[in-house]
Amino acid sequence: MGDFIQVTASAPGKVILFGEHAVVYGKPAIAFAVNKLAHVTITDRTDSKVHVELTRLGVGGFLDLENETIESHDNKPSKGMLKYILKALKIIKGRTEFSQSETPSQKKGMDVTVDIEMPVASGLGSSAAVTVATLAAASKYYEIDLEAEEIASLAHQVELEVQGAASPIDTALSTYGGAIYLTQNAQELVKLPLDWDLPLVIAHTKRESNTGELVGSVRCKLETYPSIINPLLDSIEQVTIEAQRALLSRDDNRLGELMNINHGLLDALGVNTPELSRMVYMARQKGALGSKITGAGGGGSIIAYCPEKMDEVLHELESKEQAFTIKLYDKGVTCKVVE
Ligand code: PMV
After folding, report:
1. Number of domains in the chain
2. The model's pTM
3. Is the C-beta atom of 243 inside 6 A of ligand 1?
């Protein structure tokens, strides 16, 4: 190769509609890919360094793939995203060592530019989207054939290495797009045939959410009060099972009500905050049929289901917080090469 000037891969983020936290204990979940993407562009450098720039976040740094170190002068929390990129690039670089002959670009460094459309650490799957897009862009750049299944599995491996724990939901949705029902014990990711646009609004607290810490706090509650917390997790499971039926039969009222119940259960698990609660009730007051935390909670985002009331809910939330509408995104990761 060596003729490539630029490779860009784009992967969608996700929202969890039902089942977060309970999914960690083998319960089902419903989630789908959304039209907020991460774009990763790789271009040649004249020296042998690897430089990464997270454009919207104002974070950048040099990565040493061999020693797995990051040199960055930024101290923003979003600097953590560099770890996912480092691991993903290292995996792909490792693969090139097995290829027959070394291509010119293997010896050269690269500039990696990352543009993330969704707020980070907010329950919208930004790290999975960046990881999947980095794997796809780097494999194309090095001319390595990676099937979608392999990208999803490597991306999940990266998330496990960086975070310590992660369900395969985010990385699967960033790879394949669409809507999924994750069955009990994460045995299977079943594609949900949703062919209508759910009227959904996301509102995002400025507080970043730490998934690992929140999963840990729920575990702690479960260990302290097993006879109380286990039934709550069982209830979330039943809510998710009912919600799948309501989604497929497009039963708006039932879907909204189930979201509200799921929110109450998440509150009981201790992952709600006053800001999230305020936004959840603000959305309902303006006509949302359902609203709840989406993702780990403790900050991050809420999701509101608003048939016929999208504008009202959006304007209300927008006036106080960062809010936007989202759409189901059917495409998975895509890659574009400019020669
Ligand atoms: O906030 P997020 O997108 O990291 O979602 C976390 C969802 C949990 O169920 C709390 C954890 C997980 O890995 O499924």
Report:
1. 2
2. 0.91
3. no
Q: pLDDT per residue over 287-338, tens digit each?
A: 999 999 999 999 999 999 999 999 999 999 998 878 999 999 999 999 999 8
> Whose Cα sits closest to atom 5 in ligand 1?
295
CATH code of 240's domain: 3.30.70.890
333 lines ligand 1 (CB under 6 A): no
Residue 1 lies inside a defined structural domain of this protein: no
Evaluate whether 127 touches 84 at the Cβ level (below 8 Å): yes
In a domain, 35, yes or no: yes
Q: What is the 3-state secondary structure (H, E, C) of the chain?
A: CCCCCEEEEEEEEEEEEECCCHHHHCCCEEEEEEEEEEEEEEEECCCCCEEEEEHHHCEEEEEECCCCEEECCCCCHHHHHHHHHHHHHHHHHHHHCCCCCCCHHHHCCEEEEEEECCCCCCCCCHHHHHHHHHHHHHHHHCCCCCCHHHHHHHHHHHHHHHHCCCCCHHHHHHHHCCEEEECHHHCCEEEECCCCCCCEEEEECCCCCCHHHHHHHHHHHHHHCHHHHHHHHHHHHHHHHHHHHHHHCCCHHHHHHHHHHHHHHHHHHCCCCHHHHHHHHHHHHCCCCEEEEECCCCCCEEEEECCCCHHHHHHHHHHHCEEEEECECCCCCEEEEEC
| Residue 169 Cα: closest atom of ligand 1 | 14
Identify the domain containing residue 131 by its residue range: 6-193+329-338
Residue 124 alpha carbon, nearest atom of ligand 1: 3
Pocket residue to mutate for ligand 1, from 81, 124, 215, most atoms within 8 A of Cβ: 215
Cβ of residue 166 lying under 6 Å from some atom of ligand 1: yes
Per-residue pLDDT of 260-287, as tens digits, reads 999 999 999 999 999 999 999 999 999 9
Q: Which residues are catalytic?
A: 170
